[in-house]
Amino acid sequence: MPLRRPRKFSLRARLTLLLALAVLAVFGVAAKIVDWRADAEMQQRFDASLLAQAQSLAALTQVKNGRIEVDAEDAATAVFPGNADMSWYELRCRDFVIARTAEVPPSIHAGESPAFADAQLRDGRPLRVVAFRFAPTREGRAPASTATSCALTYALDSGPLDNLLDALDFILLACLLGACVLVMLATPWLVRRGLRPLSVLDRAMADIGPDAPGGRLPASTTTELASLVARFNEVLARMDEGLARERQFASGLAHEFRTRLAELHTLVDVETRYPSGRDTRSLLQEIGSIGTELEATVTALLQLTRIQSGLEQSRPERLLLPPWLGRIRARHEAGARARDVRVETDLACGPDFAVETDAALLEIVLDNLLGNAVAYAPRGSVVELSANHDGIEVCNAAPALHPEDLANFGQRFWRKEAQGAGHAGLGLALAGAAARALRKTLSFEMEDGVLRASLHWQKGVVPPQAGQNPLTVNRAI
Predict the structure, then answer these.
(1) What's the distance, Cα to Cα, between the start and end of the chain in Å?
(2) Residue-wise burial string across 404-442, b where 16 or more C-beta atoms lie within 10 A, e elsewhere
(3) Order of strands across the sheet with 450-456?
(4) Cα(361)–Cα(367) distance, rounded to whole angstroms?
(5) CATH class of the domain at 317-475
(6) SS3 content of the chain, % helix, strand, coil (to 5)
(7) What is the pLDDT along the chain (477 residues), one digit of tens a residue?
(8) Domain residues of the chain, as ranges?
(9) Is the pTM of this model over 0.85?
(10) How far is residue 432's CA from residue 444's CA, in Å, rounded to a whole number?
(11) Strand (E) positions, 101-176?
(12) Are the CB atoms for 442 and 455 separated by under 8 Å?
C-alpha cells in the first residue's frame, strides 16, 4: 500500500485567511459597539426632543375661571410648527379630553415621570410616544392645586429616525465588508514582504552542503529568525565537525594502510623473486606483526574518533590510584626489559589515594604515555612514573627531541625521524583527546633532554562518607 503523502498548505494563504477572520471579528465587534452606541445616543436625543415638545404643550394648559383651557393659538404655533402630520397628542384632565388631534396616538400609562414607548398608527406609521401627568397653571402663572391633574400623551413620527439608523447600519456593514476585502487583497503582498527573510535563508541554504564545508546562514536581523538561524548554524558546525572527523579518519586509515600494505607487498614480492631462504614460520610472524600493527592502528583511530565525536562519555567512578598504576606498569614491564629500560615509580600521594574519574579514559591516557616512553627512551635509560595529589607525570630521556617539537605533539601520525629516538603520533593524539574528554590538562615539557608528560586535575579534597575508609579523594573535573 503506497504511503499517503502529507497534504501541503500555503503559509501565505493561511496567514491571509487568519488575518481576514481576525479583521472580520475585530471590526464586527467594533461595528456592533458603534452601532449600539449610535442607536442609543440618537434615540436619547429623539426622546429629549419629544419630551421638550410635549412639555411645551403642557405649559400652554391653564386654569381660567375654574375651567381648564389650552391657548389654541399658542398651541398651534408651539405644537404644530407647520408640520401637523408629524405629531399627535391627547390631553386629558379629570378624565375629560381637553384637546387632541384628529387621530389620537395609542395611550400608555402616564405617571409622574415621563414614560416612553414605541407604537404605530392605524396606517402602520411608526411612532415614538411619551406620556406623563402634570398640574396645569392658573392665571398669572400660579401653580394649580394638586387635585387638578392632567395626563398628556404625545407622539412623534419615528420613521425618519429609523431610516437614519438603518442607513447607519448599512454604512457600518459596508465599511466592515470593504475592510475585509481590502485586507484579503493586501495581505498576500504584505505576507510576501514579511516572509522575505525566509526567501533569503532559502537561497542561502541552496549553497550549503557537504561539498561546501564551512557554509553558514547569514545572520538575520529578524527577532523571530535570529535564534533559529543560530541553532541551524550550530547544527551545521556539528555536521562539519563530524565530516571533518570522518575525512580525517579515512585519510589517516588510508595513510597507515598504504604504508603497511606496501611493506607487505614488498615482503611478498622480494621473497617471490629473490628467495631469502627464511623459514615459513618467520615469514608468517612478520606478516602477523604487520597485521597486528594495522589492527592496533584501526582500533586507535576508531577510539580517537569516538572520543572526539562525544560518543565516549566520561563515567566517573572512585578509583584507587596506586594499585591501578601498578597494573599499568606491569603491562609494559616486558617491553621495558626487552629494551633494557627500567621503569621506576614514585607515589607521593600515599597508598590509599583515590580519584573520582573514568578509569577507561584515564587508562587510554596513561597507557599511551607510558608506552611511548618505554618504546622510544634510549636503551639503558630510566622511565619515571610518579603520582601526587596534583596529577600524574611520566618522564623519559629524549635526546633527539627539541623544545620546538612540542608544538607538533598530538598531531596524528607525526613522528620525529631521528633514529626512532623520539615519537609523538597517533598515541599522543589519542591521549590528548581522552584527557579533554576527562576535562583534565595534558601538557609536555622539555628540560635538559628529558621529556616530561604531565596530567593535571583540579585540586579538591573530599572527606570520606560515613562507613568508608578514611581515604583522601580527589575529584577530577
Answers:
(1) 55
(2) ebeeebbebeeebeeeeebbbbbbbbbbbbbbebbebeb
(3) 342-347, 382-388, 391-397, 450-456, 441-447
(4) 10
(5) alpha beta
(6) 50, 20, 30
(7) 455 666 666 777 777 788 878 888 888 888 889 889 988 999 999 999 999 999 888 888 877 755 666 665 444 434 443 345 788 888 888 778 888 888 888 888 888 889 999 998 888 889 999 999 988 877 655 555 555 688 999 999 988 888 988 898 888 888 888 887 887 788 778 877 777 777 777 777 777 766 666 777 777 777 777 888 888 888 888 777 777 766 766 666 666 667 667 777 777 777 777 777 777 777 777 777 777 767 766 766 676 667 766 666 677 888 888 888 888 888 888 888 888 899 988 888 777 888 888 887 888 888 888 888 888 888 889 999 998 888 899 999 888 887 877 776 766 666 665 433 333 356 777 777 788 878 888 888 888 888 888 898 754 333 333 333 333 333 332
(8) 12-166, 228-309, 317-475
(9) no
(10) 11
(11) 115-120, 126-134, 137-138, 150-157
(12) yes
Helices (H), 60-158: 72-79
Distance CA 458, CA 446 (A): 23
CA separation for the pair 168, 154 (Å, rounded): 27
C-alpha cell at 49: 426632543
- Give 215's contacts (C-beta < 8 A, 6+ positions apart): 207, 208, 209, 236
Distance, CA of 356 to CA of 102 (rounded, Å)? 112
